Amino acid sequence: MTLEEWDQRYRAGEQLFETPSPLVVSVAGDLHPGVALDLACGAGRNALYLAARGWRVTAVDGSKTAIDLIRQRAPLVDAHVADLERGGFVIAPESWDLICCAYYLQRDLIPKIQAGVKPGGAAIVIVHLADAEGTPRQAGPGELRAMFAGWDVLHYYEGEPREVCHKRAVAEIVARRRADR
User: Fold this and answer.
1) What residue numbers bound the domain in which 150 lies?
2) What is the CA radius of gyration of the chain?
3) How far apart are the C-alpha atoms of 175 and 17, rounded to whole Å?
4) Is the CB of residue 120 less than 8 Å from the CB of residue 180?
5) pTM for this one?
6) Number of independent structural domains in the chain
7) Is the distance from CB of 125 to CB of 37 less than 8 angstroms?
8) Within a domain: residue 16?
9) Which end of the chain is more exposed for a tag (fewer CB within 10 A), N or C?
């Protein structure tokens, strides 16, 4: 989908989920709030959840409409319109205690996410698994885990989604950057 198509969906009231991802809830509940980055944040369900729990959150999405919604609902979230595919947002190295990227796979973004996590910090990534129609935005079996080789994997799951707003199989990972890296 193009960014304009995403804007149209948000303007039409689609993709306006209120409930944060259960994985983000379970992970963030065990962490001391710090600085978090929510990439491809959409209308901000995870960013809003983290901010409400004391995190200093930066949220990034290519949809201006989605970012406007976040700014209206949570002015303390530092929300940016940026085309991630074109490098529109630079992830500063070792700057984030937590980076979330839910339901968006851009393979060349993964090393940037990893570099952006502080030693001892964590990444939460959720992607759709490839199905019979497979697209470049879907991961193959085991691919997401392989991307985080050398990290402490705290959670890994492949299978049916655990949220009603998604219908296709997912891969999800929570990985901690080792302090010695």
Assistant:
1) 3-84+92-176
2) 15
3) 25
4) no
5) 0.88
6) 1
7) no
8) yes
9) N
